[in-house]
């Protein structure tokens, strides 16, 4: 069996349509279909079947696609061993990173990686809702994701996950606010406040729902933005209060207070397809990100981290 055709079958299992596979692999749909048909001849069994206007994998197709994943992992492991032998982690690594993680982790990581000759890290600024992060792993070598629940959020997706850090989400207020003098703020203190929130599906929006359930009082969100700098500006102008990540909230005109009583934090996790996680160049990038993640809390008043571990 041709490994390249096995890869296409695996992509079809991951992406669901011939068109999506063609787009991702820079082929025409007819070329993808032809390669799948050649693979069917090689194995002597139908791998696809009609499903509505498209196709789906047969039982044989799903079984072979799972095997293709194992084959690709084995190949990447062999390639990684050779790279280690040659001490040559070269090539491009693509990464999707959400803005505040980029602000915290990317400058230092890029500085570290500058010493790895031949390794190029190409980053895109991407910040979708929590569930969509796992889908991005089809298109990027590394996806930096965040969630209130950590790795359990993407369990069952067949991804390698590396927890990088846990960052508190604090209540952010104007300095003249009635609660600005408190050391910590309890959920009951926030009843009746207007909030500047993030889009539905983001970690802070989930926590506002938990706050609503805890106090049994409605939480009023008057504006929603994904850009934390816009949120800071609106809080500073007195249009509401917000929950924002501790290590990237920097406006000196704001009071940043710990929320007690409920878990108010986000877990930052690197997501990867298992075969890509075996590449030495990808492991170099993860090591650089991990080192930065360990360093960030040390320069803040309330450090909080968790051990770095790999979960598949």
Report on the architecture of this protein.
The chain is an alpha/beta fold and 312 residues long. It has helices at 3-15, 18-25, 29-43, 59-86, 99-113, 133-136, 203-215, 228-236, 274-277, 280-295, and strands spanning 48-51, 54-57, 91-97, 119-125, 142-147, 160-174, 184-185, 194-197, 220-224, 242-245, 254-259, 265-272. The chain has three domains: 3-83, Orthogonal Bundle (Arc Repressor Mutant, subunit A); 88-165 and 266-299, 3-Layer(aba) Sandwich (D-Maltodextrin-Binding Protein, domain 2); 167-265, Periplasmic binding protein-like II (D-Maltodextrin-Binding Protein, domain 2, 3-Layer(aba) Sandwich). Helix 1 (3-15) packs across helix 2 (18-25) and helix 5 packs across helix 10 (280-295). The two termini are 27 Å apart. Mean pLDDT is 89; it is low at 302-308.
């Amino acid at each position: 069996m041709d490994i390249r055709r096995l890869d296409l079958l695996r992509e079809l299992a991951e992406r669901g349509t011939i068109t999506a596979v063609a787009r991702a692999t820079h082929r025409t749909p007819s070329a993808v279909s032809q390669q799948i048909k050649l693979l069917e001849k090689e194995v002597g069994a139908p791998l696809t079947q009609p499903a509505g206007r498209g196709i789906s994998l047969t039982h044989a197709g799903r079984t072979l696609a799972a095997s293709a994943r194992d084959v690709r992992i084995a190949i990447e492991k062999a390639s990684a061993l050779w790279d280690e032998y040659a001490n040559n982690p070269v090539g491009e690594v693509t990464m999707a990173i959400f803005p505040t993680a980029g602000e915290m982790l990317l400058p230092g990581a890029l500085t570290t990686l500058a010493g790895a000759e031949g390794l190029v890290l190409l980053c895109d600024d991407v910040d979708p809702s929590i569930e969509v992060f796992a889908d991005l792993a089809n298109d990027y070598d590394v996806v930096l994701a965040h969630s209130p629940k950590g790795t359990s959020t993407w369990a069952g997706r067949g991804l390698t996950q590396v927890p990088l850090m846990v960052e508190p989400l604090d209540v952010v207020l104007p300095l003249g606010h009635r609660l600005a003098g408190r050391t910590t703020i309890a959920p009951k203190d926030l009843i009746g406040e207007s909030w500047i929130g993030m889009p539905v599906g983001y970690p802070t929006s989930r926590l506002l729902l938990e706050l609503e359930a805890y106090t049994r009082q409605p939480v009023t969100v008057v504006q929603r933005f994904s850009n934390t700098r816009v949120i800071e500006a609106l809080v500073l102008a007195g249009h509401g209060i917000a929950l924002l990540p501790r290590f990237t909230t920097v406006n000196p005109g704001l009071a940043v207070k710990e929320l007690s009583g409920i878990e108010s934090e986000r877990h930052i996790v690197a997501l990867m397809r298992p075969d890509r996680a075996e590449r030495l160049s990808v492991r170099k990038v993860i090591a650089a990100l991990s080192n930065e993640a360990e360093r960030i809390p040390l320069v803040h008043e309330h450090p909080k981290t968790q051990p770095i571990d790999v979960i598949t």
